[in-house]
Structure formats: C-alpha cells, structure tokens
Amino acid sequence: MLVPIEWLKDYIDPGVDTEEFCDRMIMSGSNLETCEHFCEEMENVVVGRIEKIEKHPDADKLVVCRIDVGGDDLLQIVTGAPNVFEGALVPVALHNSRIPGPLHGQPKKEGGVKITKGKLRGVESYGMLCSAEELGFEDKVVPVAHKDGIWILEGDYEPGSDFAEALGLRQAVVDFEITPNRPDCLSMVGMAREAAATFKKQFTYPDIEIRDENGKGESADYVSVDIRNPESCKRYVARIVTDVKVEQSPWWLQKRLMYAGMRPINNIVDITNFVMLEYGQPIHAFDINQVKGGTIIVENAEEGEKFVTLDENERTLTKDMLLIKDAERGIAIAGVMGGLNSEIEDSTTTIIVESANFNGDSVRATSKKLGLRTEASSRFEKGIDPNLCEAAADRVCRLIELIGAGKVCKGSVDNYPVPEKAKTIDVRVDRVNYVLGIELPRQEMEDILESLEIKVEGSGNIMTVTPPTIRQDLLEEEDYIEEVARIYGYDKLPVTLPKGNCEAGMSEERALRDLTRDSLCAMGLNEIQTYSFVSPKGVDNVRIDEDSWERAFVRIINPLGEENSVMRTILTPNMLEVLARNYSRKIEKVKAFEIGNTFIANMVSSDDLPEEQYSLCIGMYGNGEDFYGLKGVVEELLKVMGIKDAVFTAESQYGVYHPGRCARISVPSGRGGEKALYDELGIMGEIHPDVAENYGMDGVRIYCCEIMFDALIRHADTEKAYTPLPKYPSTSRDIALLVDEDMEVGKIEKTIEEYGGEILESVKLFDVYRGKQVDEGKKSVAFALTYRDRNKTLTDEEVAKVHNKVLDALKEKLNAVLREI
Fold first, then answer.
1. What is the per-residue pLDDT across 342-366, written as a single tens digit (0 to 9) for each?
2. Could you tell me the CATH superfamily of domain 219-415?
3. Which three-class secondary structure state does DSSP give residue 112?
4. pLDDT tops 90 at residue 668
5. What is the dotted CATH code of the domain comprising 425-490?
6. Cα–Cα distance measured from residue 16 to residue 281, given in angstroms and rounded to the nearest whole number
7. Is CATH 2.40.50.140 the classification given to domain 43-167?
8. What is the mean pLDDT of the segment spanning 535-550?
9. Among 168-177, 394-403, 490-499, 594-603, whose mean pLDDT is lowest?
10. What is the pLDDT of residue 306?
11. Fewer CB within 10 Å, N side or C side of the chain?
12. Residue 384 φ/ψ region, left for φ over 0, alpha for ψ in the -120 to 50 degree band, beta for the rest
C-alpha cells in the first residue's frame, strides 16, 4: 500500500519527520517495505513557456523551440516531441542539470542523469524538454494526456520557477506491507487511522457532505437496483450525477493518484480511483445512456455467456460468476472489471455511481478463472466492510461537486438486504496484563482501544468492546490483547523468560518413526523425501485397478500443473521415480526408504476431511538384491518394533508386483478368539516387469515394500522384558517333510507351534529340497525343533510324546509325510 505523506496529512499530521514516522509505524505493527523520496535527484529543472517553434533546418522530425525560462533571453532547445505547441508550459532541464531518468528508454541510473548543452543535427540545444517518465515517474502512472511526449502543464506557473517546487513534487511515499487480515489498511483512511492511534493525534475523516444536490430530480427517478444473489452481493448503492463534463482532472487530484501508483485518465475515472484508494471501497461509474431500462440487476451469468470488458477483451463467463446487468445484457463483471458497453466517454453527460459490496470468495474465483486481477478484485478478495458503501458513494459525489464535474441528484438507491453488525465481546483487564506481562491500568487500555475507534463499555475487570465493522479481524479476546500491545509499544514490553512447567519430550509416534529411520539406515538404506503433490498418472504407471481405493485422490483446487494436481495415496510411484532417476544416471545399486504422509479422499461424503496416514516405502535394485533380501529387511524392522508372529501370505492379484513373487504382510489382531483375526500391515515383492518398463527400467529386477506405518505403530511394542538364562538343557529334533509344491512354509510352522505346546522353544526352517528323490509336484522342507522346559530337565519320553503329536497333526491337517534325512 503506497502512502504519500502529503496525502496522509489531509487526515492527520503526525508532527514528525518521515524517518521517525516510519520507525514508529513499524513499532505499532505496520510493516514497512520502502520509503521513497521523489525528485531528490532533480536539479536545475525549471518551468518554461514555449514562445516560438520553428522547423529544424536539417531534420524533418525535429523542431527548434524558443523558451522563456525567466531570463532576459529566450532559451533555444531542440526537441523531437510531437505534442509541443506555442504557449505550452513544460519542464525544462537546463545546462548542467540533473534529472532522475531513465533517459531515452535506458535503465534508470543511481544518482540520476546529467543534462548538458549540445548540438542536434548541427543546431545548438541548451537543455532538454522532459517527459514525466524522465522526471522519475514510472510509465504506468504517467497521465494519459502526457503519456506520449513532453509533460504539458496545466494551470498558471511562473517561467523560471523551480519545477519540483512549483508542482509540489518533492515528497515522500511510504510503501507498507499489508497482511491479509488487515484489508482495512488497504486505504488512506485506514492508514491514517493507524497513524492517529500511533501518534495520539486527532483524525479527520474525508468530507462527504454534498453542499448542493442540484441535479435533475432524484437518484431513484433514474435507476432501480435488484439483487438476485444476496449471498454474493451484500449491498449495492447507486447515485446519479447529471450535467457531467468529462475532462482532465485538476493537478492536485492527478498528483495524488500518481504518487499512489495509479495513472490519471479523466476526472470521473480519477475520482472513482481516488475514493477507492482513500476508503478501500472500489467504485465504478456507468454511462446511464448505456444502461438499458434504467435497471441494475445483480445475478449470476449464463453458462458460456460472452462479455467484453473495458480492456477490450472478450471473456467467456460461467454460471458461478456474478454479473451486473441492465434490462437486456451484462454491463460489468461484479468486483472485477466493467464492460466496454457502458464505459465513460467524452460525450457522457449522466452517470450512475456504483458503490457495492461483493463476496470475496466469489470475486477471487471469478478473477482466477478469467485470469483478470484488478485493483478492485484484489480488495474485494480480502474482504470489505459493506457499511463503507454509502460513505464512499457520497465522497465520489462530493468530489464531483468540488471540482465542478457534474451536478449530484438527491438521495441514493441503497439495496442492503442484511446489514452488517459488529461483534461485541468481553475482554478481561487482568488477562491482558497477564498475557503481556505488564501492569497497565484499565483507563489506559480504554484509551488505546478507543483511539482505534473501538467502543468500550462496562466496568471493573471486564471491558465490553465493540469494534467498527471495518475491523473484520477483531473476533476474539486475543485480538484485542494484540491491539493493546502494538499501540502500547512492543518495545515497551518487558523481556522475560517463558514460564511453564511443561516437560520437553517426544511423542511415541515420533519416537517410533525415528527408531524406524535409525534401523533402516543401519541396514544400509538411504532415506529419501518426495513431494506429496503428484500426478494422477502415477497409479496408472504402477497398474492400480480402476476401482481401487488408491485412486481416491484429494484434488488440488489450484494446482501448479497436471503433474502436481492430486495428493498421493501411496508412496510406491514416488519411490519408483527416484529409483528410475538413479538408474538413468548409471547408479548401479540403490536401497532407499521413505516415511511420508498419504491422503485418501472420503469416499462417503466429499464434504468430510480426507484421511491422512503415514506410510513406509522401501525400494531397492542392483546386484545381490532379491526378494529374500527385502524380506530380511522387513523382518528385522518388525523385530526392532517388537512385532511378533508376522505372517507373509502369497499374493498374485496386485498389479504392482510380479505374480508369485509378492506377499502380503499381516499380524494377529488379538481379536477373534480361537479363530484368530489378522491386521494387514502392507505388501512387498518384486515389481512387475510392465511397471518397471513404464519407468524406463526394462529388464531390471526392482523390489519394493509399502507398509501402513500407522498400523505398524499400533502393533509396535518396544518395551524390553528380560528373563534369566535357562537353568535346564534343551533338546532338538530335525524333521524333513514331504509336502505339496504349493504348500506355504508359514502354515507348516504355524501347525508345529500350535501343537508343540509350552515346551516347544523354537522352530527354524533350514532346508527346502526338490530333486530326484522327491516326486514331481512335491518338495521337501526341513525344520529344526528345539524343546525345553524351564522348570526341569526333559526326558526323552516327554519330548517324544509332544513331538509325535506334532507329526500326527502335520499329517492329518497338511498331508505332510515324514521323510528320512
């Protein structure tokens, strides 16, 4: 927000120099970007009057001007400007002068540009006539009337007078950074209110009293307002001005706009822009002769409706965009830009002054879809107080009256369905002092709040406060505590150490994540991190089924691109991208893991929040890596996490992995009684060749595992329970079993453990054999069984009894036949 100090003094005089003003505004919470002092680099530039113009003898595009600069003799200057004429008052840079620049399209130089006399095509030139841009004003703020050519002054100025002094150009402009929660400060009145509270000075509001409403009739005689979408348009005020004379604005008005960063166009448009900057309320003016039927209708556009805006571009509208219409057609996109079909022209004689309040979300969505961001839309997006509408409309009419640009009709048409009311809450005096660590009397708090136009009532410890409706950020008690703190002065608050009895610690979930990272790194894996925003094509690349939950994406409303348009549901596609990137760079072997968030949209109601979970993904390729190597990593991790009895079950239907080289990982849930239930932890295996090909790794064996980390945490048990070494010896039995080829080893182990009873200490697979001595379709699996009783030495009879029971169960349940080793 650009704040010219000269303009600010129309409402409040801080009584300090610019440097102190900036320092104290910063301390009261107004963040400063820059402070620019205009025309400091301008020297020896005066006002000149062109007395005579002659053609250059040797150049068709140059003329020789004789200029009165206050001396006895006329000054000769050669120029190529097309807009000079005899009698024109112009800025003249004399010999040995300095101007801010830039000069002739060159970059602006620090310290300005020095101007000296010289010759142009053989004719002496004792200086230079200057454009507004050459005098330090950016091209975007140069008045339309002087945009191309020399700056022609309007009014009566003494030739030879200092140009900057004559036009009041030497002044400071402060650029404040306005945070999104303070849209009220996107205005001169808002910043003046802040300055008044900071410097404890009297604040004067702009003059909105119309002295003579001598227009023809009343505003209601010319126009009616119909709001058909009150959710998107909270208020619409319209006033009528007749006998309008469209011309160039007076210099004081142009100067205000230029220093505030806007280009002067004509008096009517300039006044609407002036009031928008002054109040923060966007204003628009329509030529009433172009408003069919004298009717203003506020409603949504038709789907696909075409509309040409003031910038002469045709826009295609959608049904969720709010449109200002007359009886036949659209005339403005609400809160964004007016239409070319109703713009103010030189021939306009009667105007409608629109001061309306539009929903910020609606304006933001419209502006984004159309790719059209304006000063008005940027203000509406942040939220504007609807109670400003009437005062802003009156201010426009007062300024039109003040400069004689038209005659104001009586009254206004004000459609305000649901008036905005301030929210009153209680603020505790002792709570303010407790939070700030000070002992401030109630009266001083009241003075601070009232200086911000906050009404304070009540007595004792309770202050009942009511903010002005323009302060939409004041909602809770803490907001008022902050107001007291910043106006009292952050620099005055005592510096104390934080008080509290909170003990630093780490959550169990975080500790288990760190334990997982440490364990996997110790096993030789490298941790990676990838983006949560991914492409929806990732699940296509890993062959996920069309109806699978992995496609329940949370879609980004404003994505950077298609490749970042959804939130990831699994980590495997990201892992494969990392492995493929390393493979393409000739990295021979990679072992990596990632612990990250996944996001799954609620498949019952789109209004509910998505489900957010942690996942663990492990990926590896290279010489020596295989399925059992990955399985060993997973088993070791489960062991570290204290998870026992994990079951690996063959999986052949999941498209990501190679059929027959994939397993689902599950653990007993602790539910189900005799028929135990299992919770799935994840899935692991060798990546399907088609998936590997999709990532440019044809013929490479890739191994991945994805585990639902939240489920892992639920079953983790890292508590260590130590038992003494056994006093009594163990005894072992080795058995070799002939079983069907498709028999899972896990089922055999589970049966052995079930019938081994309390004295079975361990079961270990040590051999799988297929060969000449084994029938086709069969395999031989060998186990070592260890028996031990911790209370006594086992006898052969006791071991044999249990061992035979195990063998009988294997034969009966699994058709496993004992084979001699």
1. 999 999 999 999 999 999 999 999 9
2. Phenylalanyl-trna Synthetase, Chain B, domain 3 (3.50.40.10)
3. coil
4. no
5. 3.30.56.10
6. 29
7. yes
8. 92
9. 490-499
10. 95
11. C
12. beta
Distance of CA 811 to the CA centre of its chain: 67
Q: DSSP per residue over 361-395, as a string?
A: HHHHHHHHHHT---HHHHHHHH---GGGHHHHHHH
Helix (H) or strand (E) holding 715: helix 709-715
Q: Starting from the edge strand earliest in sequence, which strands make up the sheet with 2-4, in order?
A: 2-4, 172-177, 31-37
Do the domains 2-38+172-199 and 508-715 sit in the same CATH topology, yes or no?
Answer: no
What CATH number does the domain located at 2-38+172-199 have? Answer: 3.30.56.10
Of residues 735, 736, 728, 724, the one with CA closest to residue 795: 728
Encode pLDDT of 392-446 as tens digits: 999 999 999 999 999 999 999 999 999 999 999 999 999 999 999 899 999 999 9
More confident position, 758 or 104: 758
370/258 Cα distance (integer angstroms): 28
Tokens at 690, concatenated: 């088609």
pLDDT tens-digit readout, 592-609:
999 999 999 886 666 678
So what CATH class is 508-715? alpha beta
pLDDT > 90: what percent of the chain? 74
198 in the Ramachandran plot: left (φ > 0), alpha (ψ -120 to 50) or beta?
alpha
Edge-first strand order for the sheet with 526-527 is: 526-527, 590-600, 611-621, 702-708, 678-687, 657-668, 647-650
What CATH number does domain 731-819 carry, 2.40.440.10, 3.30.70.380, 2.70.40.10, 3.40.50.620? 3.30.70.380
Q: Concatenate the DSSP letters of all residues of 638-649 into one string.
A: HHHTT--S-EEE
What SS3 string covers 46-73? EEEEEEEEEECCCCCCCEEEEEECCCCC
Rounded-to-5 percentages of helix, strand, coil across the chain? 30, 30, 45
Q: Check pLDDT > 90 for residue 307.
A: yes
What is the pLDDT of the chain when averaged over all its residues?
Answer: 91
**Using an 8 Å Cβ cutoff, are 294 and 413 in contact?**
no
SS3 654: coil
Are the CB atoms for 433 and 488 separated by under 8 Å? no
Q: What is the pLDDT of residue 40?
A: 86
Q: Which long-range contacts (CB under 8 A, 24 or more apart) does 271-275 make?
A: 271/396, 271/399, 271/400, 271/403, 271/405, 272/353, 272/396, 273/375, 274/399, 275/392, 275/395, 275/396, 275/399
Model-wide pTM > 0.90: no
CA distance 242 to 255: 26
CA atoms of 698 and 380, how far apart (whole Å): 55
Which two three-digit tokens encode residue 617?
């993904």
Contact 520, 463 (CB under 8 A): no
Mean pLDDT to the nearest integer, 109-135: 88
> Hey, what amino acid is at 290?
Q
**Inter-helix orientation angle 267-279/188-199, to 10°:** 40
Query: Reduced to 3 states, what is the DSSP secondary structure of residue 126?
Result: coil
Residue 224 near residue 296, CB atoms below 8 Å: yes
Distance of alpha carbon 587 from alpha carbon 579, whole angstroms: 9
Say yes or no to pLDDT of 116 above 50. yes
pLDDT in tens, 674-733: 455 778 999 999 999 999 999 999 999 999 999 999 999 999 988 887 878 888 999 999
Q: How far apart are CA 94 and CA 127, in angstroms?
A: 4
CA atoms of 186 and 122, how far apart (whole Å)? 53
Band the pLDDT of 145: cuts 50, 70, 90: confident
Identify which of 154, 298, 302, 152 has the alpha carbon closest to the alpha carbon of residue 231: 298
Phi, psi angle pair for 425, to nearest 5° = -135, 170
